[in-house]
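User: Please run a holo structure prediction.
Assistant: Happy to. Please share the sequence and the ligand.
User: Here you go; the ligand is flavin-adenine dinucleotide.
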Amino acid sequence: MSAPAADVIVVGAGNAAFCAALSARERGAKVLMLEAAPEEESGGNSRFTAGSIRVVYHGVEDIRTLVPDLTPAEIESTDFGTYTAAQFFDDMARVTQHRADPDLVELLVTHSFATLNWMREQGVRFIPIYGRQAFKVGGRFKFWGGLTVETVGGGPGLVAMLTDAARKRGIGIRYQTRALDLLYDGSRIEGVRVREDGALRELRAQSVVLACGGFEANPEWRTRYLGPGWDVAKVRGSRFNTGDGIRMALEIGASARGNWSGCHAVQWEMNAPEFGDLAVGDQFQKHSYPFGILINADGKRFVDEGADFRNYTYAKYGRAVLAQPGSYAWQLFDAQALPLLRDEYKMRGATKVRADSLEELVNKMQDVNPAGFLKSIRDYNAAVKREVKFDPNIKDGKCTVGLTIEKSNWANTVEQPPFEAYSVGCGITFTFGGLKINPTGHVLDIEDTPIPGLYAAGELVGGLFYFNYPGSAGLMAGAVFGRIAGRSAGEFALKR
Ligand SMILES: Cc1cc2nc3c(=O)[nH]c(=O)nc-3n(C[C@H](O)[C@H](O)[C@H](O)COP(=O)(O)OP(=O)(O)OC[C@H]3O[C@@H](n4cnc5c(N)ncnc54)[C@H](O)[C@@H]3O)c2cc1C
């Protein structure tokens, strides 16, 4: 039998994998990470993110722990608010329609702040998200929706800092090394079989952490589990997350868990490429729709654009767009909303039309029924409660009354030129179904017994997200469960 490659093998090199590797190393284990991608494309979906992370905090002092170089001027000019554990629990329960596994949610919420502090100790730096999560009111930034910090340099920064931390601690990373199968003798995990440099190899270890993403980049599995039409969705991030980790574990008897027909999917530039483009990152997204309206090919509205803060609706509205005729929609804004549009709307090459009248605008769109479009906007404008004041920082209750599909908040009329419309399709972020783990990160078999030596973290863990997702819980989940799985895998390996 060949010599062990390491005590612990971590499959993947995204946020969850790095947190697992650093945590196992902290226990004293020798750790090897396997990354399917070449180094220049490595880092998985984590690298495509904005690096924003949902975390429990109780005010500026907690933020100062995470961002020690916060200046007195920044503190003076900012209302950071709070985001309590109770709010995080509520958000998880509400958006998942009370289906999220309570044990996993408990860990996610109660370990969130400590885990970010641990990441800081590993070398990850955070800053407040001034650009996208706070609006200025009376000269002060005010955060809304509880989402307050992001990693320095966004997703690329996060992956660079984690890679640096891993290298400094002697963790090996083998790029272009795709894990294919688990080595399993029927009672314990013995390593993984990989393809590397065009050859098949067996890499032995005492324990293995699977942290290699969901199946969002696999059109065949998307169609099989998410349903018809999902084969044509665009992938927002990595092309390497094809469900390998889930498949490998299921093949040796692991239990499937969670919302296998569900996923995180957003409104995404209509003509974006099939997979994410690292040079563009998340800029194909279009997240200012709560301040405008959404229209389909028939010229009809089809969702409540202002049902909640963007953070709580964006992850399910990609699916709503996919379900429309032709699987596309247009986001429409007038002069009142244009100053509020996020930076991504300035992206060069966006599929966009602009006009001084709605008639001219719909003519330019070409693929929307003009009569339906003009009627929808007339009906919408007539239904807006004009007397209620618009306020983007709160759920302002400025709504419509009497429409089949109401708009609940931020319902400004669409009547002041110039008008702009942006064409969006569906961009899938990650899938919700995955493996069943216990609170120590151990993968469970179909009889709910831990598979000795097998752990999992990140997107491929099922049971946390159902139907929808509170924005920026993905990185936090990867970090919390990666850290737990790595610690368990390290301890298990050293005991063996
Ligand atoms: C455009 C975009 C923006 C996002 N923005 C945010 C945000 O701001 N905040 C947030 O919390 N979440 C965000 N998310 C979601 C977030 O990216 C994920 O929840 C999180 O990064 C998942 O981490 P992970 O480590 O599980 O997976 P990943 O980071 O995807 O890592 C999986 C790794 O496994 C590797 N891999 C796959 N198969 C194999 C194999 N067979 N062998 C070896 N390696 C393999 C991949 O190459 C990759 O390195 C965003 C996602 C996208 C796509």
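The radius of gyration is 23 Å.
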